[in-house]
Automatic annotation (TrEMBL):
Phosphomannose isomerase type I helical insertion domain residues: 131-218
Pathway: Nucleotide-sugar biosynthesis; GDP-alpha-D-mannose biosynthesis; alpha-D-mannose 1-phosphate from D-fructose 6-phosphate: step 1/2
EC class name: isomerase
EC number(s) on file: 5.3.1.8
GO molecular function annotation: mannose-6-phosphate isomerase activity; zinc ion binding
Organism name: Alca torda
Name of the protein: Mannose-6-phosphate isomerase
Reaction(s) this enzyme catalyzes, per UniProt: D-mannose 6-phosphate = D-fructose 6-phosphate
Domain of life: Eukaryota
Family: Belongs to the mannose-6-phosphate isomerase type 1 family.
Role: Isomerase that catalyzes the interconversion of fructose-6-P and mannose-6-P and has a critical role in the supply of D-mannose derivatives required for many eukaryotic glycosylation reactions.
GO CC terms of this entry: cytosol
CDD domains noted in UniProt: cupin_PMI_type_I_N (cd07011)
PANTHER family recorded: MANNOSE-6-PHOSPHATE ISOMERASE (PTHR10309)
Length: 242
């Protein structure tokens, strides 16, 4: 699912790509980063030592009207490696875990579903199974919860096959799925077994996008105002609405 180019957002922090400007004329420093450098005690001794006098988080307020891109943030070790190799794309060496706190009713995709739910979708959504392929689908179906490594390996194969599907093939399958679900809705049928409501909503925002199929792999999380979710390193996620 691609990002919305019109996403209203407010960022506040001391990141080198967007150091917050201080508007108080009584303060001699121009940016938050400069002020922290001159007043390192504000971070507390533990944070100051661990992050070498840098503010270790970025505060963001997002207004999500359409689904944002699926992403996963690197852990600390990988972040340092990427920063060293591609500083133009990774301007700092910190990892990027996130905590999302809902200000309004909020929807997002976060982490992989239990394997039983993914298998259920593979059995009820033939278009998804066609993209994954019979061999990979059966491998995931045979994987047992008592073998986490086997589950992880089978899941990796399935998700990789999905995301690397040939474009014409996945567009054809997506169109077939949308047509089938739309017909079922028109007939008054329950489409929850195919996650129909969310599928049609995402497809209306981004027709023909491979991200529409990720709803069968990732957890759908709904938060009420004041509730929160934590996104650790390497967890795929996408904010949908709120």
């Amino acid at each position: 699912v691609r990002p919305s180019v019109c996403l209203p957002q407010l960022w506040m922090g001391a990141h080198p790509r967007g150091d917050a400007i201080i508007r108080d004329n009584r303060i001699p420093q121009k940016t938050l980063g400069q002020w922290i450098a001159d007043n390192p005690a504000c971070l507390g001794a533990k944070v100051n030592d661990a992050f070498q006098g840098r503010l270790p988080f970025l505060f963001k307020v997002l207004s999500v009207n359409t689904a944002l891109s699926i992403q996963a943030h690197p852990n600390k070790e990988l972040a340092a490696k990427l920063h060293a190799q591609f500083p133009e794309h990774y301007p700092d060496d910190n990892h990027k875990p996130e905590m999302a706190i809902a200000l309004t009713p909020f929807e997002g995709l976060c982490g992989f579903r239990p394997v039983e739910e993914i298998v259920s979708f593979l059995q009820t959504v033939p278009e998804l199974r066609a993209l994954i392929g019979e061999v990979a689908a059966e491998q995931l179906e045979r994987s047992g919860s008592d073998d986490p490594r086997g589950v992880s390996a089978a899941l990796r194969v399935c998700f990789t096959r999905l995301m690397k599907s040939e474009k014409k093939f996945f567009v054809d399958q997506l169109n077939m799925l949308v047509k089938r679900i739309s017909q079922e809705v028109a007939e008054g049928k329950d489409t929850s077994g195919s996650n129909g409501d969310l599928l049609l909503r995402l497809h209306s925002q981004y027709p023909g996008d491979i991200g529409c199929f990720t709803i069968y792999f990732l957890n759908l999380v709904r938060l009420e105002p004041g509730e929160a979710m934590f996104l650790g390193a390497n967890e795929p996620h996408a904010y949908l609405q709120g």
